[in-house]
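Everyone, describe these C-alpha cells:
***
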Amino acid sequence: MKEQFEEKEKDLLHTKKKEIIQKIVSLLRDQDSELYYSPTIEIAELVFQHINSSDFPQKELEIVGELTRDDIQILMSLNS
C-alpha cells in the first residue's frame, strides 16, 4: 500500500514538472515565434535559464529547481 502511494506521488511530481516546463516553453514561444524551429537542446537551455532567473516563482522552483538541462530536454521529449 505504501509503495503504491509513493509511486502515485512520484508520478504526480513528474506530471507537475512536465506541466511547468510546457508552460515555460509556451511563454518563450509567445516571445519568439521562431522558437518552434529551434533544436530541443537550445529550448532546454532557455527553459533552464528561465527557471534559474531571479523572478521565477518559488513554489514552481521547489518542483523544477533541481533539474539539469538534460533533465529538461528529456521531459520535453516525453511531452510530445
